[in-house]
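I am still getting used to backbone structure tokens and would like to learn alongside you. To get us started, please write out a protein record for me. Start from the sequence, derive the backbone structure tokens from it, and show both lines together. Once you have written the record down, we can walk along the chain together:
***
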Amino acid sequence: MRLPETEDFAQFIAGKYNNAKRIVEIGVGSYPWVAERVKELLPAASVIVTDTEREKLAQIRWKCPALEPIHDDVYEPQLKVYDGADLIYSIRPPPELIPEILKLASRVGCGLLIRPYFDEEGGYDYPQRCGWRLTSHRRAIFYWMKRSSLSTSKNGAAFPSLDTSTYSGSL
């Protein structure tokens, strides 16, 4: 089952990151359709999908051979998977993963898109003062943090004044 806004989300990524060399989807699960469409729109880009479930990645490897499925856990990420990424995105991640994804994007120095469940923003508060922007492109609605909104401290925390390791949701 594809999200109704799959095409719109993929077109936004392709339009804003048209020179991207590396794009990573975190927590792809069984739905590689956005990543597959991004790869079609940006054939020169490396499009990587990650998940903690090897079986789902094996299915994706078979269904979508143009994608690069990689087993990874955002709590203990293999940084080599993300190094050089222009964009990290995640579709409907559990709210407890969002601070980890934010730290990873900050550490890598790339843009970040989160397409949450929109009932109560998926249980996570996206503070605008930290750079999150609620963005829409046709039917797709998501939160976007541009690379320029991210800064990196020595420990990889985004926004040195905000310790994301203890961040639980609202500020």
Notes: The chain has one domain: 6-149. The first helix runs from residue 6 to 16. Residues 152-171 have pLDDT under 50 and may be disordered.
